[in-house]
Amino acid sequence: MRIPVARMSKRAFAAKLSVRRNSCCKRPLSRFANSKKLVSYLGLHPSEESSGGRQRLGAISKQGNTMLRCLLVEAAQTASIYDPELRRDYQRLKCRRGNSGVANVAIARKLAVRLYGKLREAAQPNTAARMQGSPAVTVVGESLSCF
Questions:
Q1: What is the pTM of this model?
Q2: pLDDT reported for residue 24
C-alpha cells in the first residue's frame, strides 16, 4: 500500500534540509554523519540533566528547526494510522505514557530516522552491479573495439 503522505513528507524533508538561509549546501545529507546528528538538528532528542553519575532524560530539546519538526509530527500522525509497525509503537507509547503528544513526537523521531536512511540510500550510487574481484572497467568492450 502506497501512502502519498510519505512521498510528500520525504520531498518536504529533502527540500527543507537543502534550502537553508545564509548557507549554500549542494549535498544536504553530507553534513550529518549519522541519523543521531540529524535528530539532534531537528531538536527531537531528549534534553539531559546529569549529576552524580545519574542520567535524567527530559522533554525534547526543541533546539532545531521548528517548521521541519512540525512537519514531521504531522506526518507521524498520518503515518501512525497507515503503517502497522508505527501504529503498534504509537499505541504502546500512548498506553504507557498516557499522552498522545509524546507518542506523536516519538513516531516523528522514528520517521525522521527512516527518511534519513531512505535519502542516504538514494544519494549513494548503486555499487551492487559489480561483483567483488571483478575489474572496475569493462574488459569485453575494449577487446571488441579493435575489430
A1: 0.64
A2: 42
